[in-house]
Amino acid sequence: MLSYAPAGSRDGLAALLALDERLGAILRTTREPLVGQMRLTWWYEALDALDRAPAPAEPVLAALSATVVGRVAGAALARQVEGWEALLEAPLTIAALGAHATARGGSLFGAAATLSGIPADETIVSAGEGWALADLTRHLSDPALASAARDAALSRLAAALDRRWPTPARALGALAWLARLDLTRPTRPAGHPARAVRLLWHRLSGR
Questions:
Q1: For the chain, N or C: smaller number of CB within 10 Å?
Q2: pLDDT (0 to 100) of residue 191
Q3: Is the peptide bond before 189 cis (omega within 30 degrees of 0)?
Q4: Which residue in 123, 128, 120, 121 sits closest to 104, CA to CA?
Q5: Domain total of the chain
Q6: What is the 3-state secondary structure (H, E, C) of 57-70?
Q7: In a 3-state reduction of DSSP, which class is residue 164?
Q8: What pLDDT score does 53 carry?
């Protein structure tokens, strides 16, 4: 997927995805909400500080400082932390799912679009939200919440993918397509030939 991105933005996109993975790992490995909140607060403050000071000795922050900050503000990156904080709400609500989608997926796709030199328009943001919700669906134990997240993801992804994506945005389009396939073709796992063909068509046509 990274090969679909413009050469000058690939390292930055990889750093953004590494940040998303690191923040998600905090929730996966923390049982106490208060501890999770403290760890996320540290990341929020560290990301915000990238606008004013060199990155600390932390690989993800160093990569973001080198490849993203300057084109995307550290304060904007910190919004992704807010998306994960929304999931600390107990009990988890549909409103919290929406907040997660906006702050996590919308912000990540928006930052990636900026790196690629394209506007972070409504389509890009909607695709990011759908991508985040599709991923979250796999981790929700409440059937009602999982169903709501799935429906919201499919709605956002359908709206975003019903268009031709410009070449610089096709890495993000590929992520959106993968999210849609996860929901609609669960019997075709990663590496399935049909997935590869679908992504290749997107890379060539933008559809």
A1: C
A2: 79
A3: no
A4: 128
A5: 1
A6: CCHHHHHHHHHCCC
A7: coil
A8: 95
- Its domain, for residue 150, covers 2-205
Residue 52 amino acid letter: R
Global confidence as pTM: 0.95
Of the candidates 125, 77, 78, the one whose C-alpha atom is nearest the C-alpha of residue 105 is 125
Q: Which residues contact 94 (CB under 8 A, 6 or more apart)?
A: 145, 148
Domain harbouring 136, CATH code: 1.10.600
Rg (CA), the chain: 17
Question: What is the per-residue burial (b if ≥16 Cβ within 10 Å, else e) of 99-137?
Answer: bbbbbbbbbbbbbbbbbbebebeebbbbbbbbbbbbbbb
